[in-house]
Specification:
With 466 residues, the chain is α+β, with helices and mostly antiparallel strands. The protein folds into two domains: 1-141 and 212-347, no CATH class; 350-459, Immunoglobulins (Immunoglobulin-like, Sandwich), CATH 2.60.40.10. It contains 14 helices and 16 strands. The strands form five sheets. Strands 8, 9, 10, 12 and 14 form a five-stranded antiparallel sheet that branches. The mean pLDDT is 88. The structure holds iron/sulfur cluster (2 copies). One iron/sulfur cluster binds at residues 237, 269-272, 274, 276, 284-290.
């Protein structure tokens, strides 16, 4: 790219607003080497996680059609939705806290967009088309045979990698066993999954091949939020203006200059095409490439490293980590973590419900001591991984009140993750005091591993008002 870095418009658009493609050079140095290791680990984790089994179950499986969610051995169901709220709250507050303390650390080090582009696709570019200068030359040159062949090889590699990414992503929702069956069977047997793969592969190919940093600059909502989350004490890559200016070539006599030799190395490695010397900018994804690039120049010049370094607007010496927003996000994160722990411990492995049957709300029984009956449908879902025995009974206090429970099966044996449903009848006398006892309690004594657990479900009886 040109050495003129435009500051009045996006560096990736020309005067007419058309896209200017960024050919970022690879920076080598401490941060690049650390980032490579982290990216490698994250990619490996993403690909391997669906294949790792815990207790015979896929470690992470979000089975949406069956509303069954497996988190490292913990099975959650749709009615555990409040837990998902806490998980979401933890993610939001953790991101907010990390951004307030360390700026766009997520963008530069762990966001899938950065990890895949930097960790895989930019490497494919370098492998097939060479250095950034060769890539610029090739793309500005004629469409000769060599360029066509290189583009075809690159496109094929991109396509294969993207297919692996989309299939791995799908495995988190359909399971690896199902995924293998789907891959080996005709697409007509799995239209939905097949369409998902076609759409996501196309979208990702567009993103990885062409859209790239534009996603971070104009589409990513987190990128927009960071200005609210960050303050003058948040860390970000900063250019040390005091040390660097006047840069080489800016003085009238063009001789004396400070530490910046105006080599533009920090610009050529920037994946969003900006010049960090113009100050912290919205496009900066804190990838640290400019820090490595400038450090390599400083080393060659025998000058101290860190002309571009992690810093804050307040300066490293004046930087406070305990600020109101850090405390608010930290405390909120702690509350969300504690709430999740509490709900997980208190979580019921059985789901019980009593629903009134359709039709007449009650039935009058002629010539019987118990004059009325109400019909209900009982649902017991055993969400545990063990077979349980359930004894159903009315609370003892009702036995003196002329109320009788009739179930077709009692006790009930329910195997792991099975749903038991059956009609139940409650017969009661017209003397039953509805006004004082609007709710009836049905008790479930659940036996599992020779331990008893009592659950109570409350519901109302209906009869004509006398
Ligand atoms: S300015 Fe530096 S840290 Fe920011 S995106 Fe560009 S190279 Fe990365
Ligand atoms: S890499 Fe360092 S010396 Fe070179 S232009 Fe950027 S800030 Fe100046």
């Amino acid at each position: 790219m040109s050495k003129e870095v435009i500051t009045k418009r996006l560096s990736t658009t020309d005067a007419k607003g058309a896209r200017v493609f960024v050919y970022a050079a690879r920076a080598k140095g401490y941060f690049n080497s650390l980032k490579n290791k982290i990216h490698f680990f994250l990619i490996l984790l993403f690909l391997a996680l669906p294949w790792i089994k815990i207790g015979g179950e896929q470690s992470l499986l979000l089975d949406i059609p069956n509303r069954r969610f497996n988190f490292f051995g913990l099975i959650l169901w749709a009615h555990d939705a409040p837990l998902f709220f806490f998980v979401l709250a933890i993610v939001v507050f953790a991101l907010a806290l990390a951004t307030t303390l360390w700026g766009r650390v997520w963008c530069g080090w762990a966001c899938p967009q950065t990890v895949f582009i930097d960790g895989i696709f930019r490497r494919i570019d370098e492998l097939i088309e060479g250095s950034y200068l060769k890539r610029i030359k090739s793309d500005r040159g004629p469409w000769d045979a060599q360029r066509v062949i290189k583009k075809l090889i690159k496109f094929t590699l991109y396509f294969l990698v993207t297919l692996i990414v989309t299939h791995s992503f799908l495995a988190y929702f359909v399971g690896t066993d199902n995924l293998m069956d789907m891959i080996l069977s005709s697409p007509t047997n799995n239209w939905f999954s097949f369409s998902f793969i076609v759409l996501t592969t196309s979208a990702l190919m567009f993103n990885f091949l062409w859209f790239r940093e534009q996603f971070c600059i104009i589409m990513c909502p987190y990128g927009r939020f960071q200005s609210i989350l960050m303050d003058e004490h948040s860390l970000a890559p900063f250019y040390d203006e005091k040390r660097g200016e006047p840069r080489k070539g800016l003085n009238k006599d063009k001789k004396d200059h400070a530490d910046c030799v105006n080599c533009y190395k920090c610009v050529t490695v920037c994946p969003t095409g900006i010049d960090i010397r113009n100050g912290l900018q919205m496009e900066c994804v804190a990838c640290t490439a400019c820090m490595d690039a400038c450090d390599s120049i400083m080393s060659k010049l025998n000058k101290p490293k860190g002309l571009i370094r992690y810093n804050s607007e307040a300066g490293l010496e004046n930087r406070k980590w305990y600020r109101p927003r850090v405390i608010v996000y930290g405390v909120s994160l702690l509350i969300a973590l504690l709430s999740l722990t509490f709900f997980l411990q208190d979580r019921n492995p059985y789901s019980l419900s009593v629903l009134r049957q359709k039709g007449a709300p009650f039935k009058e029984l002629k010539n019987e001591t118990l004059n009325y009956t109400n019909f209900f449908k009982l649902y017991i879902k055993n969400q545990s991984k063990k077979t349980v025995t359930v004894h159903i009974s009315l609370d003892q206090k009702y036995t003196t009140q002329n109320i009788q429970l009739i179930t077709p099966l009692n006790p009930v044996v329910i195997t792991a993750e099975d749903l038991f449903r059956a009609p139940i009848f409650i017969k009661f006398s017209k003397d039953y005091k509805f006004i004082n006892n609007p709710q009836l309690a049905l008790k479930f004594k659940i036996k599992s591993n020779n331990q008893y657990h009592i659950e109570t479900v409350r519901f109302s009886l209906l009869s004509p008002i006398n």
